[in-house]
Amino acid sequence: MADAATPVNLTRAAHVGISVSDLDASIAFYRALTGREPVAAGTMHSVPFGRAQGLPTAKLRYATVNLDNALGIDLIEFQEPVGERTNGVANRPGSMHLCFRVDDFDAVYRRMKEAGYAFLGDGYTFTAGEVTPDAALGTKVAYFNDPDGTNLEIIEPRGGFAA
């Protein structure tokens, strides 16, 4: 295990990588979600790259969609070795989610529902007695999945969450 007492100072995210089963379907989903075309797309077949990830090889197709804050979403379809779906349910240790910040939660939530996005539950507003500190009160969130079950969120942050 790494020494938690030794700071490494990683403070800037470059991208989030999402393994997908069908790159074309995922590009279509994220294009509709973000309104963005991929800025890069290609293939890779490399034993050393695969080994760098703990795999025997890596034969893959990929595409990158950039967001306004310079965070890239790398969509990666592993063709060799093909992996199993993780079914990243929110409460499973090791699962992650990607959160999209919105300025008008109600309008975006409504537009997404009208477009057929299936939310995992109703939208939620942080309320007193359920969250601390009170500075987060009024934050609105909703959760949904991409075609492979990747956890996604929209958030209109308030108070301390807005910083």
UniProtKB/TrEMBL annotation:
Residues 12-157 form the VOC domain. InterPro entries: Glyas_Bleomycin-R_OHBP_Dase, Glyas_Fos-R_dOase_dom, MMCE/EMCE_epimerase, VOC_core. It comes from Streptomyces pactum. Keywords: Metal-binding. It comes from the Bacteria. PROSITE patterns: VOC (PS51819). Gene3D superfamilies: 2,3-Dihydroxybiphenyl 1,2-Dioxygenase, domain 1. This is VOC family protein.
